[in-house]
């Protein structure tokens, strides 16, 4: 019986040790990051801008979104509340729009353990439009930082661009970069 109790104690001790090490590693990782992805689309900047700006219609083409509700934010700006297919909700505030050229949105919930802003850019190119999404994000929870470090910071952006391409019958080639230098954004 003493051997079983020792083994149970050793397993619990190992789990606690792994948890403490994970917290320590996560704490050493930077809180802020910049993730930027770009892709070419055949559509015009104005057409892509209109599609992205109309977030209320995005459940028709986004694979991860079940519903979007439009509200007025406290500042009078447009606030979108997206409900994902897993039941999670995420509010976004439309910070600024540059018709046909860009949209800036940020997560509008200070209680979350993460947050940030997406800057959508639409630039004319020889084949249509070069679309860029730059995420200036932060992750307060050290465990979330550790997980994100291994799963990658660009997954949500890549899913968004892939879904947008599917809406137009395209499979865009997406290129991404990640940096912890948040001075430029």
Structural class label = alpha+beta
The arrangement of helices and strands along the chain is: HEHEEEEEEHHE
Helix content: 25-40%
Shape designation: elongated
Q: Give the low-pLDDT segments.
A: none
Description of the structure:
The chain has four helices and eight strands; from the N terminus they run H-E-H-E-E-E-E-E-E-H-H-E. The chain has 185 residues and is an alpha+beta fold. The chain folds into two domains: 1-29; 31-180, Alpha-D-Glucose-1,6-Bisphosphate, Chain A, domain 4, CATH 3.30.530.20. The protein has an eight-stranded antiparallel β-sheet. Helix 1 crosses helix 3. The mean pLDDT is 89.
Summarize the structure.
The chain is of the alpha+beta class and 185 residues long. It contains four helices and eight strands. Helix 1 crosses helix 3 (142-151).
How is the topology of this model organized?
Blueprint: H1 2-28, E1 32-41, H2 45-53, E2 65-72, E3 78-84, E4 89-98, E5 102-107, E6 114-125, E7 128-139, H3 142-151, H4 155-167, E8 174-179
Antiparallel strand pairs: 1-7, 1-8, 2-3, 3-4, 4-5, 5-6, 6-7
Helix pairs in contact: 1-3
What are the main properties of this structure?
single chain; 185 residues; alpha+beta; Alpha-D-Glucose-1,6-Bisphosphate, Chain A, domain 4; 2 domains; 8-stranded antiparallel sheet; 38% strand
